[in-house]
């Protein structure tokens, strides 16, 4: 009992997570991707950043940690995670004039629970030497017989593909989307595997002719000496330019419901929405800024102007569960 | 008859440093209570998951059942059976060659063949994908040679497949079979080789007619470990895009957002494992033998002929090369080329983190396993039997599910502690349990305690109950029976189990990934972070450190088996 009381006392005398000079970040994005931007934030404000990165399970962790969770800011790599956080009542509203000025209203939650920070496009990558009229491709075309055995993609259940399928449901309805999915599955050159970059690599190796992949990977491959040859073998295609436009997803941020350092959390999000950080996102990670005052980095801009699908992200999120079910129904990954 | 203990009674009794580990055991009147609490602690993740599974039925489970579950189950069975068959094919002949035969370089192979255990399966998967890929050196050479233009011009084995996963898992898991079966052979060797010689059996005939049947329990026990490990694997099958039940658990939880349905699936897996363990126990029960007599000190081995030796050396070389040397070579190549990019001061701290976690996990698991086994020995009642079984359930739970199973109770406790602080108007301390590395340590010791339970249980089975009776009749209390009689006899298997848990814990990824505190990395999370973004070249240095740190304990394990 003595030992127990001793442990308890020691625990109780430990310093708490609420500190004036810190902001705690739970991140779904790789820590080293955002590190340089966080450094700039610390230099400017003197507020230190602490990061936990995990691709899986972070939401459950926040939920279980409850009201004593140290999380201040949650950074997500796609929209559905933002929505899941708010749906599970794990976030709180915030209102900051600087954030509102820098991020257009349609990239912010109506109730002030989240903001989008960057945009990314779900592109088609097409082999330079083997695909006719690549820039006229639509997502729908991937179901055509001419692509039999020529398509590569990562798992259908990856959030990026789920978002695309959900948008297909929003535009075409479930039955048509299921038929499309089945046709795409039958056109696959190999079982869905690897990440978006691995598909472009496969195109460069002649395993397939077209793949699905996010826009920023193109920049990452072009600037990586070992991967440049993969990117050089493909065109980055913005699909559906003659009709509704290319599918857009966003990364974003929310403030945790029990954030011990809410003011610092707001400062961080305001910084991430500022021109400086938005430029850095585009320059370092090749993403599209949501801040309209910021132009994409030169390399990103060099991929050309394009038309975006204006379907509201909430519509995409609404169809996500149905998309997931369809993917299992057609056994897309098996 | 399995496992790696010695049967001779050593002159020196219990070493002080080991004995000091078990201060808790001194109060043996509380044995009952401590057993109960340890079993409870170690079964907590399973219980938490069971509670989750009780949530009302959702349609997710039904949907998965209707669509993909059958495929997942089939894949899981093929994977588990395939890996089991392959580890037996690789491990048993190796164990026999090293234990029973004499040939050149045997002493080298004897320890070298254990080394693949230090390789995390997912790292072997990365390296072989790199090697056998379209852009890898082998296919490039083949294309140059035959003038093929593209992938459609020829067939090449696809490592990213169910077969690939079976091979990779078997390559890193066979040492379990090799170690345990070799120990089995060594124990029977002297007596049985006599028998074989008397009967005039050739080496090969004695292998099938005598060695295999007698080492059967060791084969079954080690294969059971491998089976559980391959069912729980996630990183390798994920990388190879093979959908198994673990995939189903992850999908249900992280894509369908349905923890309850995921918990149900996990429970099905754990139940399956319990059935397997039960079958194994029946097997063991039939063949229980206590070694009362001392083995003859004489060492008898078959001297292989020149031809046989070449075959034996060739086989050992083949296995060692593909399971260890090739992956290590690929990693070293990258580590040297990209050293300046991969090396930084953090790596030292990261290594230290991993060492501390692995050390603590092993210590906790060992103390707990000893307590559980000892109580069962002293009082073989149902409660103690069930405790032991429950406490071993962690091995079958995939790492991420285990992480959640640990997180749920710890976060709950943390909330109670903080609420208490609030009510005493102290400043709440934050998440001292769930938000600290203690959570990772707990997850690892719970996941791997099965290794210790198996080893210690098997050693205990070989101590004749008459020894306990003698000690008791001399008026020795339980405490003395444990420290003066049992501990010296099972010391070796305790050491081996502790080191194995240390090595496993060094390699374990998912619990650390989910449970780690702020800015906290272990070697596996460090490696994973780069490897998952296709930057194996930067991950290589960390991977090599994992392997090197694992080598030392493995060599000690090997020695302790040999000192017979």
UniProtKB/TrEMBL annotation, chain A:
Positions of transmembrane segments: none
Residue numbers binding Fe cation: 216-217
Residues making up the signal peptide according to the UniProt record: 1-18
Keywords: Iron, Metal-binding, Signal
GO MF terms held by the record: metal ion binding
GO cellular component annotations of the record: outer membrane-bounded periplasmic space
Keyword match Metal-binding: yes
Family recorded in the similarity comment: Belongs to the bacterial solute-binding protein 1 family.
Record protein name field: Iron ABC transporter periplasmic iron(III)-binding protein
UniProtKB/TrEMBL annotation, chain B:
Record keyword Nucleotidyltransferase present: no
Keywords: Cell membrane, Membrane, Transmembrane, Transmembrane helix, Transport
Pfam families the record matches: BPD_transp_1
Membrane topology per record: Multi-pass membrane protein
Biological process (GO), any one: transmembrane transport
Stretches assigned to the ABC transmembrane type-1 domain: 73-278, 351-557
PROSITE patterns recorded: ABC_TM1 (PS50928)
Transmembrane regions listed in the UniProt entry: 31-52, 72-96, 108-128, 162-181, 218-241, 261-279, 309-330, 350-374, 395-412, 432-452, 494-518, 538-557
Entry GO terms, CC: plasma membrane
Subcellular location: Cell membrane
Principal subcellular localisation of the protein: membrane
Family that this chain belongs to: Belongs to the binding-protein-dependent transport system permease family.
Name the UniProt record assigns to this protein: Binding-protein-dependent transport system inner membrane protein
